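Hi Y.,

Following your request, here is the sequence exactly as I used it, all 70 residues.
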Amino acid sequence: MKKNIGNGDRFLRIMIGIIALILVMANVVEGTMMWIALAIGISMVVTSSIQFCPMYSIFGFNTCKVKKKK
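Below is the corresponding structure, written out as tokens. Let me know if you'd prefer a different format.
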């Protein structure tokens, strides 16, 4: 897997994921929204930790800066 998530995107994904997981654990959201927030939170944290997003590769996005070889 090639990295396709840059540092700024990674930070934003971690923050969104943590906030979503906190909302679930604090029982702020209930029912179907709880499951959606849980899925979003887990997927955001996992994709930011491995620095790869499958949806980015499908649509051709890449926020990771590539270092040029000398």
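The radius of gyration is 14 Å.

Thanks again,
Q.
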